[in-house]
Amino acid sequence: MDAHDSLPAEMSPSHYLEKVSVATGKVLDEEIRPEELLVRAHRDFHLADIQARRFMSLLMKQTGDAGLVLRRMRELRRLGRRTSKTVARMLGGRDPSRVAEVLFGLKQRHAYFRFKKPAYSGAEIADRVARLRREAAGQLAARRNGERPGLRVLVTGGTGFVGQELLWQAAQDDDVAELVVLIRPKETHDRRSGQRRVLSPTERGERLLEQLGLDAAAGAKLRFITGDVEAPGLGVAESDRERLGHTLTHVVHSAASVAFDDPYPDSFRANVIGTRHALRFSHALQTAPASPFVAHVGIETAYIHGRKLRQIAGEDEVVFPLDFYNNYYELTKAMATFETERFMLEEGLRLVQLCPAIVIGDSRSGNNRGDSKVINAPVNLLGRVQRVLAHPEGGWLERSKTTLLGHLAAIFPADRSAQLNMITVDRVAAGILAAMKRPQAVGERIHLANDNRVTAAEMRQILHEEIGIGLFLAEPTVHRNFTGPALGKLLAGLKQERLASNLARLSTIFGNYSEWGQPVHAVGKDVAVLGLPAERPNARNAFRMLCRHNRHVLEFGQVRDPSEIARRERLWRQLVLEIEERSGAPAGVIPAADFRQAVESRLELPAFERRRP
Questions:
Q1: Are residues 202 and 54 in the same domain?
Q2: Which one is predicted more confidently, 148 or 450?
Q3: With a threshold of 0.90, does the pTM exceed it?
Q4: Half-sphere exposure of 249 (CA within 13 A, CB side)
């Protein structure tokens, strides 16, 4: 939804951003529309612009030198503007800017955007943060019972991918005394009987405990209450709020929308309004008489920095990206971080901001509790495509059609040099737990990201080795403007509208992240402040284990029952540990064929049961 005139006033980007004149440096009194803050509003309007981006991608492929490519891009733009001035004079004094736009697609930016800054000096901010850290340290010290701080934590988003891993780790952490999980009733639909029923938070909690596989002692720490992050007061009943006010030490707000293609209003409600409610809830806890509250922990994303074209995305400051945001998810998460900072500086809320990169499965096993979003979506789709290609059915004509469709589905928009920053879920959950125990984390924004990123070329090779699919990497700009639309029409002509829709959606979601020159997220506070191990997870091995997990455990998304997934993942983890012990090496470094042989010698597939001795 880009109809900005239908947005409520409180959802306007103008609450967070200013539009500044390039010519005068003055703030323009104009309403800022959500759509003008995305990269898609500022490119692909001209054939010359598209060809220039294609040329840059080819140059990057040949040289691997991002700095050189950026210099050549600037040189081409300067050449285009000089040429436009000459042409403008030849045409009798036409406007050079207009000529540059018509001939070369070079738009003259008359304004730029910037986030509104808090009305505090650097010294004032430092003093406030130092005070909040002292308060947090005092609260933690007061909670200690011997060696243990006895943390009591409210978690939003506990049924999500990261949330479940956090519950599993926290339930086995002796420093955590209680976990209160905010959960909504959920309507279920039995496909066999056609019946619909609503699961209460208690019923959902019981199912979640079963899926997590916690023993009685660990499971006893978890308590489930009704709530909704999009409702004032998090939708928590008054009786629960009063009781929590006397016990809670932390609120971990991890609930958010991770739909990269959601319209602006939906993203805003989930990511900004939900954050506001969580912050107000935590502030009410902190200011209650004799409150044991220590701090609010907000889970954000490293991609609040948007597109920076190989520039370092620092942990300390968020500025509006010169190359805009990829989607409304990134934009609204950036807005949410400013809401969080405002509560800290103006309301005195003690808080920590944690910013994970792209979260994938467990570093050793690849276990992801059935998550089918982000990186898992294309892996599962490609895996299903490869299975169809390997075993085509029907007559010669049908098999030929299947093969053609399979090869079309294996066209993916990505520059070989594009880098994705992937971090494993176990590292993220460990970071959240560490943040609750370290008062020096209060006031910090910390990237839970990786210092070893994976290129599209490396991912293609791993997919080929683990799945067997020959992925064709199409130049993203050409694919976005020509190849993709043509492919969609061809698939529609073959009556494959669903496949065309899935591929178009994946291209929309991942196309921007697979271009060359992705931002580099600074890391360091995860070790220096949170005390996490200095050696971060090996992203290539972790992606390889993701592919193996999705292939054998999830059957590329075909296994959907949460209880069955939980059963399989427990067995899979045991199996991976056995293979590692026998080989003496991490499973992620074992060659694909050897690992498959080890799995098949131990498991009956597809029943996913241990082979009998």
A1: no
A2: 450
A3: yes
A4: 25
